[in-house]
Amino acid sequence: MERAYSFFLSVLVLQLYFLETCISKNINTDQSALLAFKTSFTLNSSHPLTQNWSSQASVCHWIGVTCGTRHRRVRALNISNMDILGTIPPHLGNLSFLVSLDVSRNHLHGEIPKDIGNLRNLKELVFVNNHLTGSIPFSIFNISSLETLALTYNELSGSLPVDICHRLQRIKIISIISNRLSGHIPTGLSKCTDLYDLSLSYNSFEGTIPPEIVNLERLEFLNLGGNNLQDNCPGRRNDTYGAILS
């Protein structure tokens, strides 16, 4: 009996050791990704992140970082309104447990790396009010967990995929106002059945407004003004759709 108990205790200790090693390794992956993000910043010595984002402290205690209580992995990153000048490195795609990413109202420039599409648990992607350029990586439209895509007030170009809702079946907010997007409004938006905010104003979209949009029963906000669109859809309510093209 004593031998069996001793064996069980040894196995338990080994399991705890491997679990601790695994957690440490994974959190180090998150820390490395965020330190790579920091190296892209231009910060002065008095900036809050200069000393706080350091390998000397647990990443879970860094400003703007929230870790999960169970796995102790980075679940949310919010560094909005922090006067950050820099770029978005591909390393952020290694934050595999990330649910919310908000870097809005900073001075981030350059392109959005396609590696952001590796964030398979992401629900909120908020890059509002920066200076991001290039096209929106198609990999982002493959994040099936995504609920909010907010890229308003940037300098993004290119078009939206026709089958935008093929994987984004949980999407609720698509806000890409004041960019340089062109092409047609995707007809596939009718399959985003949970969509309640579609804001694509002040881009360079052309053609007609897809009549399928009228079938989005949960849609509450529709902003398509400031484009080159024609509304040829009969039966729209004037109070809701009358200002679309203004």
Automatic annotation (TrEMBL):
Domain (Leucine-rich repeat-containing N-terminal plant-type): residue spans on this chain: 28-67
Classification via InterPro entries: DNA_repair-toleration (IPR053211), Leu-rich_rpt (IPR001611), LRR_dom_sf (IPR032675), LRR_N_plant-typ (IPR013210)
UniProt membrane topology term: Single-pass membrane protein
Signal peptide bounds: 1-24
GO BP: any one term: defense response to fungus
GO cellular component, one term: membrane
Pfam families per UniProt: LRR_1, LRRNT_2
Alphabetical list of Gene3D superfamilies matching this protein: Ribonuclease Inhibitor (3.80.10.10)
Keyword annotations: Leucine-rich repeat, Membrane, Repeat, Signal, Transmembrane, Transmembrane helix
Subcellular location: Membrane
Source species, domain of life: Eukaryota
The protein, known as: Leucine-rich repeat-containing N-terminal plant-type domain-containing protein
Lineage: Eukaryota, Viridiplantae, Streptophyta, Embryophyta, Tracheophyta
